[in-house]
Structure to design on (1316 residues):
């Protein structure tokens, strides 16, 4: 179901209902871009720690706009062992609510736009008809604005006992406005005294004057009149005063307040859907969903926090239960029987043995998707496919029970090991980001950080390291990847950081020391251990922070000739399920961004990048993956019991070395 | 005429023709935004120098996308004393040409998008069907890519004398590819020997392998075969080798080159229109066109240069003759008879006495515009209206001749004083940016720079300065602007910079010293002269540059343990009318941007801003403008001769004080 601004309100209850009755929800987002500069390979380096990955995505991905949000609710129909599905495709745009609304700037990456254009994406649905939204802070400020207006207009509610003729007037009227206000008051008096007249329309005047009028009238005439502001065709604002009895006045006030409430809700817009999802506590399923989660929080709640640990807290509030189907498919017991975990391929695979295609039909009144026609990269469709994948994989787990079960629900303990772990692309020794606790911290004592001239290619690195004891020889097997001249020095892995640096992983920790020692006398390149690299980065960060602070302190001092005031750290997050929760003051700021395609766009880009670099780059190759599969297969065979323990360690067995 | 990607090529000749035959051209651009942060008032401060304005716009406006370009050609039909008009509305989008194309990131400002959406703008025409383009550097690089490919493929043209069996092969084939290449060569031999076979299709293989094949075949078989790469449906690339006689081979080579030339032209896309405009040397007319000029150069030529002086040189190459109708309308003899110089109002005014509406009709085959239906903010329409305004104003100048002339052409000396001066918004003592030479440099010895707490409003500043000898009293006249309590201290002008600083202009230079002296003992605010402010900014800039350099030097040294290499200044610009001209290496970089609406969007925003600030801000008001008009009227009366001298000083008489 396509939801845009004009049909959003009419369909909101349907959305709430779908969320409410769902067994689980699937989501997917489409963004205006992925990376504001670094290539996808740079952004997703194979040796990123979760903290580094979070920082990179936060820095380079968050200024794009999530402009299409797909939501699919799945409810199992127990009588028929099938699921009823309702899908929604929301188009989103930060249309400014009024003149004092934030004026959001967002970035577009041409290749992403082009990609979506080729899928037939309708950009007018976003830019002309997108559903607006406010984040928590913006909602709070708008509420405050309304409250302030109301208290200004009715401000003298408590002063209604003051005689209208009291000289001590609570409103300060500037000297040059006194005549003007006096004239208005005269007109009100005429209105009140003359029985025939029911209302009085004042001439358009300035905002300041209107404010004075409201203030004056509210203390002079706390009852008996209703004051409102209207607009001419030419957008000039003028005040109309109507005589009303007390009941009528109260009724009109309530009407006005109800109208304001509605305006507020309209401005909060699509965020209400996210609130509903969060409040429902339902399981939310996504595919390679780290970016979707980051964008959703950043755009509809508050700008992402400084640290990963804060982000985890926040994510736990917004999405109490998350499951990443790409991670599930890359983990035991799926990993060995599934080769390609990109969404489209995964869906195809999960329709065949040993999996069963899920039984799913659209709810009445909802359109169905034809997976044959493949509306990939439409968020609603991708969410749907993600849901199908989840169902198939969850049900498969039931086959390990005694006796086996066909249907494993979203509430089953069998899937709990997969909760709140988000797939981490390309980091082989840390397959997921753990939202529920600390992340894996592999030793990486066989990893080196190398810096070299920008002309170097992977073959140069291979040549360099073959000197340090790698096994020389042609890489065997039917690999499609070309080998450099001289053969590949055993099992080294190159993970490019940028033009002049890379991580290199050796197969033997002993080689590390040889490499570091030898490089001490090298002129064109430098090698340090991974540990040294981490340490140095930490030092640099501290130093840079200090210089920046110093420089700015100096400038501030000169400019303002005042004492430097210390930076006040922002407060911790409250759980964001409450509308009244405070959150850190967020600005929709423009930091340089880099784009990470969500879900499988990223993988498509990887493949493109690889093709491009084919002659130069010998990155993570299939054989590595195969090697690991072999290792796990062994583990599984050792444990031939038919039951799956609920301990997550077995499923997520990550080798100490690779 | 709507021009998008699919009909661009078919209509390009029409465009060229229209430019070629035109007497003058009118242009207008629509952008995805104006300011990436600062409000329009901050971005266009009343005391900016042209250099400062250029820097601000460069910093805050250039990351938006010019995505609609309006071009109207006007050719006068001498027999009937009317103009024939051809209008073009181009939709533009930086669609990546191939995988190695730059991947442009651009920013969108929600309020600008929303504004255009309300005008019925079709965003799909941009994002799905926009005409691509390359700037000069990108074009050069693409040309280089093609040249390199060609020389690689045909590389051994000079080596054709080497016997195919020579052991010294010019191509280095890696050990593990030798078998593969040998097999390919075998297949070629079969092809050549077997008379029946005309062509040979190889299996898809990697890019690296394809490169080796091309290199090998070009030296082994310099004649007799034609080699090309094709793509399967699945986008896999494979090589096809065809037997050809020399003539056939040459013909196919030429075909291939012609195809490449066409691909190159397609990629250069819309830039070709700008090249044609530049090369034509025709007068180009725009309305408040500084931003249009900056964007056009930035997007289609090269990123804007560091300094305003370099920009002037560049602009002179791209647009040898420019005329800004907003400036024209704000200058003598128009200024006194035209109150509102916003485009829509100007067009209406110029249809009435003492002006004459221009006689303009669309050329055959071109649609006409109905000014009554007002398609404002569509670039083609705005360009059209701009052209109409120019014609009316130019013709009016003819009324000062003896005998008077009805029609003043684009080549008349009468309009030369207006050439190459671009309107500078809100800077009262510097009305234009002079592209042909140095800018006006008013003394500004009655201007102060004030810093104060952020709670202060304009009324606070007024109170402060009334202490320094301003004439106290209520501001008289029927001004709509409210006066603060205590009245307005004579003729001071406040020009806000940001929340905590502003320029204040006093009517008497003597007051300046009093103010500066008095403020020395103040705690909450600081006052310095304009001259001191400028000096200080200059110092800070130098200092900051030094700190940044030092910090980075330090980090570089630590990281790379190498000597710091000095920054190499970029070369000067060559005239960009030549395709072979070199230009500075440009990156489509993402610096934080602020938006400035082009043409009158800016004014519309000003009005909105003013309304918003009505209660607080007493900015440049009508009376100031009236004061100046009175002054000029006097000047005119003193010179009652009917003729206009061609000296530009009279028309651009700018008062020393205001």
């Amino acid at each position: 179901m396509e939801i845009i601004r004009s049909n959003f309100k009419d369909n909101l209850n349907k959305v709430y209902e779908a969320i409410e009755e769902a067994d689980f929800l699937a989501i997917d987002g489409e963004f205006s871009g992925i990376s504001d500069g670094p290539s996808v390979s740079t952004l997703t380096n194979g040796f990123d720690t979760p903290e580094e990955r979070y920082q990179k995505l936060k820095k380079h991905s968050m200024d794009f706009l999530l402009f299409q949000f797909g939501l699919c609710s799945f409810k199992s129909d127990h009588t028929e062992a099938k699921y009823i599905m309702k899908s929604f495709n929301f188009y989103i745009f930060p249309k400014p609510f009024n003149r004092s609304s934030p004026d959001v700037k967002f970035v577009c990456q041409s290749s992403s736009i082009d990609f979506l254009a080729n899928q037939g994406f309708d950009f007018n649905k976003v830019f002309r008809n997108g559903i607006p939204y406010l984040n928590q802070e913006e909602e709070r400020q708008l509420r405050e604005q309304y409250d302030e207006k109301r208290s200004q207009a009715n401000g003298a509610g408590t002063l209604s006992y003051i005689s209208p003729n009291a000289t001590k007037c609570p409103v300060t009227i500037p000297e040059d406005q006194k005549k003007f206000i006096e004239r208005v008051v005269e007109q009100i008096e005429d209105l009140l005294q003359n029985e025939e007249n029911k209302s009085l329309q004042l001439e358009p005047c300035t905002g300041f004057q209107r404010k004075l009028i409201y203030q004056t009238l509210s203390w002079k005439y706390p009852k008996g009149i209703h004051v409102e502001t209207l607009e001419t065709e030419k957008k000039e604002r003028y005040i109309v005063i109507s005589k009303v009895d007390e009941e009528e006045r109260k009724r009109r006030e309530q009407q006005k307040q109800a109208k304001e409430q509605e305006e507020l809700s309209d401005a909060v817009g699509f965020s209400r859907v996210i609130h509903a999802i969060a409040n429902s506590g339902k399981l939310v399923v996504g595919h390679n969903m780290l970016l979707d989660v980051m964008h959703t929080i950043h755009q509809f709640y508050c700008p992402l926090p400084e640290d990963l640990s804060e982000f985890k807290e926040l994510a736990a509030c917004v999405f109490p239960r998350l499951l990443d189907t790409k991670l599930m498919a890359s983990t035991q017991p799926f990993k060995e029987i599934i080769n390609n975990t990109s969404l489209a391929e995964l869906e195809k695979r999960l329709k065949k043995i040993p999996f069963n295609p899920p039984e799913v039909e659209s709810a009445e009144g909802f359109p169905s998707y034809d997976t044959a026609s493949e509306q990939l990269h439409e968020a609603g469709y991708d969410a749907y496919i993600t849901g199908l994948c989840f169902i198939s994989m969850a049900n498969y787990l039931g086959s390990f029970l005694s006796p086996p079960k066909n249907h494993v629900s979203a509430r089953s303990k069998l899937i709990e090991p997969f909760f709140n772990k988000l797939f981490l692309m390309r980091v082989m020794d840390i397959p997921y980001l753990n939202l529920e606790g600390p992340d894996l911290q592999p030793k990486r004592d066989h990893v080196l950080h190398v810096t070299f001239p920008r002309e170097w290619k992977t073959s140069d690195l291979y040549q360099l390291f073959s000197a340090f004891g790698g096994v020389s020889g042609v890489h065997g097997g039917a690999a499609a990847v070309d080998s450099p001249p001289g053969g590949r020095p055993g099992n080294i892995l190159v993970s490019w950081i940028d033009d002049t640096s890379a991580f290199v992983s050796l197969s033997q920790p002993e080689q590390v020391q040889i490499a570091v020692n030898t490089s001490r006398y090298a002129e064109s390149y430098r090698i340090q251990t991974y540990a040294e690299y981490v340490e140095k980065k930490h030092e640099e960060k501290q130093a840079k922070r200090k210089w920046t602070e110093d420089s700015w302190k100096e400038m501030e001092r000169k400019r303002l000739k005042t004492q430097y005031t210390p930076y006040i750290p922002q407060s911790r997050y409250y759980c964001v399920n409450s509308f009244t929760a405070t959150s850190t003051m967020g600005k929709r700021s423009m930091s340089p961004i880099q784009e990470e395609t969500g879900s499988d766009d990223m993988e498509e880009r990887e493949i493109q990048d690889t093709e491009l670099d084919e002659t130069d780059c010998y990155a993570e190759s299939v054989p590595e993956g195969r090697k690991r599969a072999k290792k796990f297969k062994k583990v599984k065979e050792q444990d031939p019991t038919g039951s799956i323990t609920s301990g997550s360690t077995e499923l997520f067995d990550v080798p100490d070395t690779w």
Remarks:
- Chain A touches chain B through 72 residues (CB under 8 Å).
